[in-house]
Every structure is written in C-alpha cells, then in structure tokens.
Amino acid sequence: MQLTPVGTTVFQGVKAVDSDAGANGLVEYRVVENPGDVERQEAHPGRTPTVADGAGHFAINLPHQGHVTLVTPLDYEKVQRYLVTIVATVSTTFKLSRHT
C-alpha cells in the first residue's frame, strides 16, 4: 500500500441501501475524522501506537459511488494501520446518517 499512487481507488465495497425511490433513495458517502477510535486502539498495553485516523489520507471523491481513494502518500514505517470512518447519508428532508 505504501507504493500506491495518490488518486488510486483502494476500496470499492462501501454499500448502503435506502428503500425510498428516486432522489430520496440516493445514498452519499464521505470519510470523516474519528480520533476516538485511534485513541482506543492505542490504549492497549504492549501495542506500538502505529494507528492513525484515515481522514486526510483517504476520501470518497464521488459521493454516490462510495469508492475510497488515496489522497496523500502513506509511510508504512510511521503508520502500519489506518482506521477509516465512513458516513452514509440519505437525501431526504430529514438527514439520516450511519457510521461504519
């Protein structure tokens, strides 16, 4: 992954479904910051804290497709694992979101 060029799609499996038809059924995805997950991972005794929040390194450029792309180079010597939090939002009068 360290040699992966910026702009490369690294994951395509993001999928959420809304039962509404038409525009109300469109799902938009985005990568969001979640430093709390990183803090929980680093709190384990005996583990080297080489986990980072994926926001800023990964993005979803086409929000209706959910393809995760690399937006900055990765350095495996500094960080071996990134936690990427993705929010899915439906296009309705009442915005609903789910985190995964």
UniProtKB/TrEMBL annotation:
Q: Which GO terms describe its molecular function?
A: calcium ion binding
Q: Does the keyword Coiled coil apply?
A: no
Q: Report what the protein is called.
A: Cadherin domain-containing protein
InterPro entries, alphabetically? Cadherin, Cadherin-like_dom, Cadherin-like_sf
The UniProt entry's GO CC annotations, sorted and at most eight, read: membrane
Q: Which organism is it from?
A: Ranatra chinensis
Domain Cadherin per the UniProt entry, residue ranges: 4-89
Q: Name one Pfam family in it.
A: Cadherin
Asked whether the keyword Membrane is assigned, the reply is yes
Q: Where in the cell is it found?
A: Membrane
Which keywords appear in this protein's UniProt record, sorted alphabetically? Calcium, Membrane, Repeat
